[in-house]
Design goal:
Layout: H1 2-21, E1 26-34, H2 37-49, E2 65-70, H3 81-90, H4 111-117, E3 121-126, H5 133-139, H6 148-156, E4 162-165, H7 182-188, E5 191-195, E6 208-212, H8 235-249, E7 254-260, H9 262-268, H10 272-295, E8 300-310, E9 314-315, H11 335-349, H12 355-366, H13 376-390, E10 397-398, E11 403-404, H14 406-419, E12 421-422, E13 428-429, E14 433-439, E15 450-452, H15 455-462
Parallel strand pairs: 1-7, 1-8, 2-15, 3-4, 3-7, 4-6, 5-6
Antiparallel strand pairs: 2-14, 8-13, 8-14, 9-12, 10-11
The protein binds zinc ion (ZN).
The site of zinc ion (ZN) has 7 residues, from helix 9.
């Protein structure tokens, strides 16, 4: 009898520990938009090459659980951010372009909505616009990702505690051709609206918070990391602030989705230093969650994945068996900001702009022609492109988020060739993406082989009763 009792107690104990281990109170869901294996390997290579100030701390790629995730959508082997965001938020495949709906336009319930219904705090944050595809998939259901105004209105009605990002793409319904104002809708739903640095200190009595960037020069992004700290919003600060706000407010725990949205922008632009800047920022944001995890290791789960890969990035290109991070490291300008400087130079000097002036711009920002020597052939090619721009014969090279003059585009192609970053597309690729996890419930993602992106929110959902 006694031994049966002991066995029963042991059995109960083991059930309790299993359930506890798989029921994290605090869930962090990090999504690197456009962060494929090539991007993560770029970050690893970077930290291997460059003096690593964060060395004693863990990088997200060092987390104990890692796996591979397929990203295809319902109608394509190459997904867009809408279908991939829907898969990661709602656990269902859909067609490219659709948000929070399945392929038959049936509205889906995201894991964030389920967390809210279970009494948890919810924060949805992105370094790009808060109505962009990835964050939108967590609170909205629309047949088109371009329905920005309606998406923002659904954000206002979400009841989520914190929505944070760069701005809205259509806050007044101008593109939707319907007059309105999403800000008043947020306020009517109990949201305090904060801008830029003011958001660093969210008042504890704030019921709900909408936190937007204050820098109108980069409306689609809180500012690209490689262009330097704008003293305003950054992803790490957003994560830290979100933790403070939700931890005190919700003893039952919280769910936080934080997107590194501009990794994708830089991938579309095939911009090596730009991509690395965003990856480092994303890594630093995960580290904020990791610091929290260290204080609450048995109750915290951190999951990091990506919606898809952007750029078809490889480490090593054109038959060269090497990567030269040391020439990427000093670069402190994005391709978009460089194109802007080129435009200012040309506008200021017009037809009297000289090749020497362009050369000094390249040397100053990219080291090209200075620390990174150019062959006569390479310089000759760029001079031809320069002449085309001078003669107004240059056609803009269009990528999803930015357009570049042909000269800037070729300068960056040359830069990629010098550091041996290979790109196969200015769009997305169908390559798989990684998943990393640590903490309570992380074992659920271990030893699974290749998983599909739709499985991730289903697993997260299963951990919360
Ligand atoms: Zn993209």
């Amino acid at each position: 009898m006694k031994s049966i009792r002991i066995t029963l107690v042991l059995l109960l104990l083991s059930i309790v520990t299993t359930v506890c281990a798989a029921t994290p109170k605090y869930i962090f869901y990090f999504i690197g938009d456009g962060m494929g294996l090539g991007q993560v390997q770029a970050l690893r290579t970077y930290f291997k090459t460059i003096d690593d100030e964060a060395a004693p701390l863990m990088h997200f790629y060092d987390f104990p659980v890692a796996g591979i995730v397929t990203t295809y959508s319902a109608d394509s082997d190459v997904t867009d951010s809408a279908a991939a965001g829907t898969a990661l938020a709602c656990g269902s495949k859909t067609r490219n372009g659709m948000i929070g709906m399945d392929a038959d336009t049936v509205a889906l319930t995201s894991v964030a909505k389920r967390m809210k219904a279970a009494g948890r705090g919810v924060a949805i944050m992105s370094s790009v616009c808060i109505d962009d595809a990835t964050p939108a998939a967590f609170y909205a259901s629309r047949p088109s990702r371009g329905d920005y105004y309606e998406i923002a209105r659904q954000g206002a009605a979400s009841g989520f505690d914190l929505l944070a990002g760069a701005y809205f793409r259509d806050p007044y319904g101008i593109k939707a051709r319907t007059a309105g104002n999403v800000f008043t809708e947020f306020q009517a739903n109990g949201y305090t609206i904060m801008r830029g640095r003011n958001g660093y200190n969210i008042p504890q009595d704030a019921q709900r918070v909408l936190w937007l960037d204050n820098d109108s020069t980069t409306e689609n992004c809180i500012g690209y990391a490689v262009d330097g700290d704008n003293g305003d919003m950054t992803l790490p600060v957003m994560v830290r602030t979100g933790i403070d706000f939700l931890y005190k407010k919700y003893p039952r725990g919280f769910f936080m989705m934080a997107e590194g949205g501009a990794i994708d922008h830089m991938g579309h632009g095939n911009d090596p230093a730009g991509v690395l800047g965003e990856l480092r920022e994303f890594d630093a944001a995960v580290r904020e969650a990791y610091e929290f995890y260290k204080k609450h290791p048995r109750e915290t789960l951190i999951v990091i994945t990506a919606d898809h890969e952007t750029g078809g990035l490889s480490m090593g290109a054109d038959g060269v068996y090497a990567v030269d991070m040391s020439i990427v490291e000093p670069v402190n300008i994005s391709k978009g900001a460089f194109a802007q400087e080129m435009r200012s130079l040309m506008n200021k000097n017009g037809k009297s702009t000289t090749w020497e002036q362009v050369k000094s711009l390249m040397a100053q920002h990219l080291g090209l022609g200075a620390d990174v020597p150019l062959t006569a052939g390479e310089e000759g090619h760029l001079m031809i492109q320069f002449q085309k721009v001078l003669d107004n014969r240059s056609e803009d090279v269009k990528t999803l988020y930015q357009n570049f003059d042909e000269l800037t585009d070729d300068i960056f192609k040359l830069f990629s060739a010098k550091c041996h970053f290979g790109w196969t597309t200015t769009g997305h690729s169908g390559n798989p993406v990684p998943i990393f996890a640590i903490g309570a419930g992380a074992e659920k993602f271990d030893n699974r082989g290749w998983i599909d992106n739709t499985q991730i929110p289903l697993m997260l959902r299963g951990m919360v009763k």
